[in-house]
Amino acid sequence: HWVFACAFSPDGTRVITASNDGTARVWNAENGTLLFVLECHTLSVRGCAFSPNGERIVTASGDGKARVWCAETGECQLIIEGEHTHWVSCCCFSHDGKYVLTSSFDKTARIWNVTDGTLINTL
């Protein structure tokens, strides 16, 4: 599968990769062992990032959604949807981990509250 994006965890012990099969995978950075697979997106995962404290992961997908996951268990904690009208192509956390920033092929970037998915601003 194609890998569209990748990122290190803040402590450098894990790596996340985003794939065209609709999954993201979390790996042990030292030995390359697959730790778990994040499965819920219906189209390719285009972006991925760890939160600054390493406790969460955000993924961006061609299905128009971003998802926030627990970085330890792989449990989906939040689905961000309904505002982007095209693929979500990139994502990241704010420096304090309170917000997620997404960009899309709909020519917008959007800032979201990571607690409840509330749209804060459209750029």
Question: Your description of this structure?
Answer:
By secondary structure, this protein is an all-beta fold. The protein has strands at residues 3-8, 14-19, 23-28, 34-39, 45-50, 56-61, 66-70, 76-80, 88-93, 99-104, 109-113, 119-122. The strands form 3 sheets. Strands 1-2-3-4 form a 4-stranded antiparallel β-sheet, with no helix packed on it. A 4-stranded antiparallel β-sheet has the order 5-6-7-8, with no helix packed on it. The mean pLDDT is 96.
Helix content: under 10%
What's the helix-strand series?
EEEEEEEEEEEE
In spatial order, strands of the major sheet run: 1-2-3-4
- Report the principal-axis shape: globular
Main features:
mainly beta, 12 strands, four-stranded antiparallel β-sheet, 54% strand, single chain, 123 residues
Summarize the model shown:
The protein contains no helices and twelve strands. The chain is mainly beta.
List the helices and strands and how they pair.
Blueprint: E1 3-8, E2 14-19, E3 23-28, E4 34-39, E5 45-50, E6 56-61, E7 66-70, E8 76-80, E9 88-93, E10 99-104, E11 109-113, E12 119-122
Antiparallel strand pairs: 1-2, 2-3, 3-4, 5-6, 6-7, 7-8, 9-10, 10-11, 11-12
